[in-house]
């Protein structure tokens, strides 16, 4: 599954990932308070394309009434699933008691979950972390209680909030939750899945029902094709350099078309900065800086063509 990520999982990227083999995709997270106030930039996040399905819209917030009202608004957008974010670790979210901040108030988390489940008729799921910090890893006791609220699946990121995205994800507690005989709903694991082999190991070792991929998809939506084929056949497909660059160009063009040239290029820079295509190119620093500084589509596509030619000559 493609993990929900702010400023990353826009409609175009979600669709590309589905085409590349992602079993399911998630929107960027949506602020319940902003949605209730009809903030345009937030309501736009509810737009989904039938070709993306199955697709989940994810909401976050700390106010129970706002979460319930936002959930009802999300239901009108007709996603396949409504997901509640109890895992975002960034300070501006967690410090205000939303996202992973809810891990400091599990009773409120449970109350919000139950209220949202009762407010809508579509399946509700939850995404969270192991706990607030290493001294408070509460997920094994929390998971059955979340299930009792009526959620249909639980995604667990194998880090605490205090870890943010540092260190290694700990999958052992995810495995413990899955092995708990009380758990009847699907358990999805998230954290540090970067290769098809790691995805298979997560299934084999921890028995999870699904694996969620986040940062490893930046600039590499083809990872879902690699993972799905590896799980099915034991072989990693060979995807040509030309096809990979074609996908990057499509991301650039669709990002610009969806927003505008300047902001569309800004949006896509995270993918260009992280794509594994550029790893191993000698003396690439100057070219990378140019890629991240260009401000027109023409310049960016010309530079990308130059890099593709360089890599092709290296592989020849």
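Q: What amino acid sequence fits the structure above?
A:
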């Amino acid at each position: 599954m493609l993990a929900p990520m702010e400023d990353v999982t826009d409609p175009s990227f979600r669709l590309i990932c589905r085409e590349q083999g992602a079993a399911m995709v998630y929107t960027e997270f949506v602020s319940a308070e902003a949605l209730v106030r009809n903030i345009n930039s937030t309501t736009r996040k509810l737009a989904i394309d039938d070709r993306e399905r199955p697709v989940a819209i994810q909401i976050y917030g700390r106010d129970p009434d706002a979460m319930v009202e936002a959930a009802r608004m999300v239901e009108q957008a007709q996603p396949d699933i409504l997901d509640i974010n109890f895992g975002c670790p960034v300070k501006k979210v967690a410090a205000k008691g939303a996202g992973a901040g809810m891990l400091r108030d599990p009773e409120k988390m449970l109350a919000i979950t139950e209220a949202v489940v009762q407010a809508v008729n579509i399946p509700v799921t939850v995404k969270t972390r192991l706990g607030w910090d290493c001294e408070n890893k509460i997920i094994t006791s929390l998971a059955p209680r979340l299930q009792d609220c009526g959620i249909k699946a639980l995604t667990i990121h194998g880090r605490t909030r205090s870890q943010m995205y540092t260190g290694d994800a700990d999958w052992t507690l995810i495995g413990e939750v899955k092995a708990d005989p009380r758990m009847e709903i699907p358990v999805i694991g998230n954290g540090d899945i970067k290769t098809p082999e790691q995805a298979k190991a997560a299934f084999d070792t921890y028995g999870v029902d699904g694996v969620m991929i986040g940062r490893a998809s930046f600039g590499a939506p083809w990872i879902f094709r690699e993972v799905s084929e590896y799980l099915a056949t034991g072989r990693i497909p060979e995807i040509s350099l030309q096809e990979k660059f074609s996908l990057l160009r499509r991301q650039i063009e669709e990002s610009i078309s969806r927003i505008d040239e300047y902001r569309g290029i800004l949006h896509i820079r995270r993918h260009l900065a992280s794509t594994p295509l550029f790893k191993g190119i000698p003396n690439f620093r100057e070219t990378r800086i140019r890629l991240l500084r260009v401000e027109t589509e023409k310049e960016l596509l010309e530079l990308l063509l130059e890099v593709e030619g360089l890599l092709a000559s290296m592989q020849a």
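Q: And what stands out in the fold?
A: Strands lie at 25-31, 55-60, 81-86, 124-129, 154-157, 187-190, 210-212.
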